[in-house]
Design goal:
mainly alpha; 6 helices; 78% helix
Length: 163
């Protein structure tokens, strides 16, 4: 339920909800992309791409592309597609709940964001880039904001004193 003393909270929750919805839609797009590759010869596609750009197939990056295409050709796509579907459902549900100012969505956002923090810290320590630092900072900010929202929700509502 919307709390009258938190006028900026609605805007912030809506921005976070849009961000979560964007992640959910991106996961759907990724799963559809994986499904579209399921019945294609990935190595032939990789060779065609390398030939189109006149790259040397023995160079480092084209060789990596060919190696990854070989791995992908022998991979069952059902499990990644199911996992992406579950991730997408969670993100879209979280976005809906945050947009509607639901306590369960704040809990979900705080916990699901906090789960990634150790991985993001480890990734930043092994590969320090501005992007990795930005992702960590953004996730930390969302988790901290959700904790603040949850604490406010538990606090008693301010009363208007009568004079």
């Amino acid at each position: 339920m919307l709390r009258p003393f938190d006028t900026n909270q609605t805007t912030t929750l809506h921005l976070i909800a849009l961000f979560e919805a964007l992640k959910g839609v991106a996961a759907i797009a990724a799963s559809l992309g994986l499904l579209s590759l399921a019945h294609h010869d990935m190595q032939a596609l990789a060779h065609a791409l390398i030939g189109h750009f006149h790259w040397d197939p023995e160079a480092h990056y084209p060789r990596m592309l060919l190696d990854q295409a070989a791995l992908l050709a022998n991979t069952d796509m059902r499990q990644p597609v199911v996992l992406l579907g579950a991730y997408s459902a969670i993100r879209l549900a979280e976005a809906y709940g945050l947009w509607r100012d639901r306590a369960w969505a704040e809990w979900l956002a705080a916990v699901s964001g906090a789960v990634y923090l150790p991985l993001e810290i480890s990734h930043l320590l092994h590969r320090t880039t501005w992007i990795n630092a930005g992702v960590l900072a953004l996730n930390l900010a969302v988790v901290a904001y959700m904790v603040v929202c949850l604490r406010r929700r538990r606090a008693p509502a301010p009363t208007v004193s009568e004079a």
